[in-house]
Amino acid sequence: MARFRCTCGAQVRTSGDIPNPAEWHLIADRDFDVEADPDTLLGRSVLAWRCANCGRLWLDDGRVEDAKSPRLWEYVPNFSDGPGPLA
After folding, report:
1. pLDDT tens, 17-47?
2. Shortest CA distance to 72 belongs to which of 29, 16, 21, 14?
3. Shortest CA distance to 46 belongs to which of 76, 65, 16, 26?
4. Three-state DSSP class for residue 85
5. What's the whole-model pTM score?
6. Cβ contacts of residue 75 below 8 Å, gap of 6+?
7. What are the pLDDT digits (tens) for 48-78?
8. What is the distance between the alpha carbons of residues 77 and 38, in angstroms, rounded to a whole number?
């Protein structure tokens, strides 16, 4: 999967520039260990992509049934006064 369409209609790219400005690695506080090496931290993270147009986060649920179409969860932020802290 090199890209997908967000619910808002914008295209979200999952490959390309490195670092990818749309790609996020989310790490739970309980899994974070400052003594861990970067590979261990990435292994503990949840892969996500952020739509630059609307701010939605698309989280990979880790259950890939088909390498070209992973299952994604959609998180829709609700900021009444602008893009909020995800900008």
Report:
1. 888 989 998 888 887 767 888 888 888 888 8
2. 14
3. 26
4. helix
5. 0.74
6. 56, 57, 58, 59
7. 999 998 888 999 876 656 656 668 888 887 7
8. 28
Answer for the pair 60, 47: CB distance below 8 angstroms, yes or no.
yes
Cα 59 to Cα 43, 62, 82, distances in angstroms: 15, 9, 22
Query: Which tokens hold the place of 60?
Result: 């990979």
User: Is residue 66 a contact partner of residue 58, using CB atoms and an 8 Å limit?
Assistant: no
Of 85, 11, 26, the closest CA to residue 59 belongs to 26
3-state SS, 26-45, equals ECCHHHCCCCCCHHHHHHHC
Select from 26, 5, 2 the least CA-distant residue to 14. 2
> Which pair of structure tokens corresponds to residue 41?
């931290």
Q: What's the CA gap between 87 and 73, in Å, rounded?
A: 20
CA distance 37 to 24: 18
